[in-house]
Amino acid sequence: MKILSYGLAIVTLIVFFILKVNYEQPSFVAFDESMSELLGGNELIILFHNIGDTGFVVTVALVLLVWLWVRERNFRGMLFVLMTIAFGNVLNQVLKIWIERPRPELVDQLTSFSFPSGHSMTGVLYLLTVAYLLSQLVASNRRVVLLWIVAIILACLIGMARVAEGRHYATDVLAGWSMGYTWFIVCVIWYEKRKRVFEKIN
Known about the structure:
This protein has about 200 residues and is an all-alpha fold. Helix content is about 75%, strand content about 0%. The radius of gyration is 17 Å and the shape is globular.
C-alpha cells in the first residue's frame, strides 16, 4: 500500500508539471471551458468552498495541534500538521507567484494568481492529514477506509466548488490536488521515518 501511495505521489508531481507547462494549450483551454460550463453556477457544489476557506482550515489545524499536544503528547505529529497544512499553504503561494496565471474573468474576481488552486491544494492537505492521524487510532479497517473515502470526496468537492463559482480554472484545481497529494506524501515519509527512529531509540 505504501509503495502504491509513494508511486502515486510521483505521478501527481508529474501531472502538476504537465499542467503547468500546457495549461495554455488549446486542448487544456477547451477542457477548462467544458468544466466551467458543466459546473458553473451549481449552488450545491459551491457550498463546499466553505470547508476550504482559510478560517475553517486554520480552525481544524488548531484543533489538531491542541489534541496532539494535550491528549496524545505527540509533538512529532504537531510538526507534521504544521508541515502539511501551514507549510503547504506557503508552498502554494510560492507556486502561484512563480507561475503567475491570471484567474478567470469575473466581475468581483480575486486579485491573487490562479495556479494552483489554494483551496484545492490546502483541502487535500488538511483533509488527508486528519484522515491519516485519525486512522492510526481506529481499530476497524472498515472505519479507516471510510475515513479516507470521506476525506477524498470532500477534497474533490472543495476543488469543484472553485470551478463552479468561477474562481479557478479546472486545470488550477487539478494542479492543486496533484501538488497537495505530493506534498502530503513527502510529509508522511518524513513523519514515519522519524517515528521509526524514535521507536528504535526507545
